[in-house]
UniProtKB/TrEMBL annotation:
Spans traversing the lipid bilayer: 6-24, 36-55, 61-81
Protein's UniProt name: YtpI family protein
UniProt KW keywords: Membrane, Transmembrane, Transmembrane helix
Taxonomic placement: Bacteria, Bacillati, Bacillota, Bacilli, Bacillales
Stored InterPro entries: YtpI (IPR025618)
Pfam families: YtpI
Amino acid sequence: MIIFPTIILIAFLFYIYYKVMLVKSRDPLQQAYMNSKAKTFLGIFVFFFGINQYLYYETRLSLFIGIVFLVLGALQFRLGVKSTRHYRSEYSKHRA
């Protein structure tokens, strides 16, 4: 079961990458776009972290905590994808 820790690590690295790029950017529209991408990867991180914790411990408490992480991760991912689509279209309008 090496796949879940790998996904968790990759998602966390992309989250850190987009947060650093957010600080480096001066354009507010680009900052909002980078923040939405970071939210997407944070959602992936939290979602798969919840799955991994349940598979590692397999207790009732880890099941409940894992469910909470799954729900929060899915909501964060959905919010990030939705705002990424919005800011991508706004960025293309701004460029044209």
